[in-house]
Write a structure and sequence with these properties.
Helices cover 49% and strands 14% of the residues. It has 345 residues and is an alpha/beta fold. The strands form two sheets. An eight-stranded parallel beta sheet has the order 8-7-6-3-2-1-10-9. The protein has a two-stranded antiparallel ribbon with strand order 4-5. The longest helix has 21 residues. The N and C termini lie far apart (49 Å).
Length: 345
């Protein structure tokens, strides 16, 4: 095993250590602005910087978060005192990561389906981000369930791009977080979500193998297997946990060290409960760690408290830390509704 491969594996293990998880704070500028608008906040660079500073300065966050995924704007920003966000995170024991895809666009000839862009110039950008201090990266592909969707073409094209991205990351010494997201939106059943998720994952790993990606040096960031958001029959927490783990056992090689779920718009407490159920029911029998890489399911409660007011920073940080602590407990299978309520109080 060469030095570069050893470094990749060391970073991967550092992202999975001590039942910690990832904090996704890499929302694009338009997405962040929409969330600010909904709360009546100004949609400005300064407001976004203040919000990110509130997050990275949260005391003791490194006790529960091993890595933070940033966007291009955030990785270049500094605190009001002039310290780069990257250095604040590193000083807290949190590895900095970077989203490197350029978002999704309509897939030509495939109405309702999307393709992720950003491969052009990626090799050079990865080198630059590595020099800035990033230790890992993320690329997201999305798949909708509907009439004739996802098509085989959509699955294959996005899977190939995910694999090309992952190979370039490892070439640059960055751990790739591979994110194929089957979207929650729709009337599909739990069984339909499971079938599509398994099909997508099989293709993703086929392409990763073809691109000679070192599986021990990646983290998979998939969706949980859930009933569609408008499906009349919603699966219970345990049903979703069973369906998710059963699907992953069919599709994810044992060489992969960790699976860090996206929250995908789930309510914060429900995402935690589902992760906890998986670890309670299956942890001792799984070849990979089941972790979290949540965005809204950690951030949103804090954002609603902060609302741009400096007087609310401490309370917002306490709420952010509480959500991170709850998800670390869920990795252990130790989360309870009572602990949730006591901590929130």
């Amino acid at each position: 095993m060469g030095p570069k491969q050893q470094a990749l594996l060391a970073t991967t293990q550092a992202l999975l250590v001590d039942d910690k998880g990832l904090l996704a704070m890499d929302e694009s500028i338009p997405t962040c602005n929409r969330r600010f608008e909904a709360l009546g906040l100004p949609q400005t660079e300064d407001a976004r910087r203040d919000y990110r500073e509130m997050i990275v300065n949260t005391p003791k966050l490194g006790a529960f978060i091993s890595g933070a995924i940033l966007c291009d704007e955030t990785i270049r920003q500094k605190t009001l005192e002039g310290t780069s966000f990257i250095n604040v995170l590193i000083d807290s024991g949190i590895l900095p990561g970077i989203k490197v895809d350029m978002g999704t666009q309509e897939m030509a000839g495939h109405a309702g389906e999307r393709i992720t862009e950003g491969l052009d110039g990626l090799r050079e950008r990865l080198t630059q981000y590595g020099e800035m201090g990033a230790r890992f990266a993320k690329w997201r592909a999305v798949f909708s369930i509907g009439e004739g969707m996802p098509s085989q073409s959509c699955i294959e094209t996005n899977a190939q791009d995910l694999a090309r991205y992952a190979a370039l990351c490892q070439e640059a010494g960055l751990v790739p977080v591979v994110e194929p997201e089957v979207l929650m939106e729709g009337e599909h059943t739990l069984e339909q979500c499971s079938a599509v998720t398994e099909e997508v994952l099989h293709e993703v790993f086929s392409q990763l193998y073809a691109q000679r990606v070192i599986l021990e040096g990646i983290i998979l960031k998939p969706n949980m297997v859930l009933s569609g958001s408008t499906c009349p029959k919603q699966a219970t927490v345990n049903e979703a946990a069973d369906a998710t783990v059963t699907c992953l056992l069919q599709a994810v090689p044992a060489a992969v060290p960790g699976i860090a779920f996206l929250s995908g718009g789930q309510p914060a407490e429900l995402a935690t409960a589902r992760l906890n159920a998986m670890n309670v029911r299956f942890k001792s029998r799984l070849p990979w760690a089941l972790s979290f890489s949540f965005a809204r399911a950690i951030q949103q409660p804090a954002l609603e408290i902060w609302r741009g007011d400096k007087m609310n920073v401490k309370a917002a940080q306490q709420t952010l830390l509480h959500r991170a602590r709850c998800n670390t407990a869920a990795r252990r299978g130790d989360w309870t509704e009572d602990a949730e309520r006591i901590g929130a109080a």
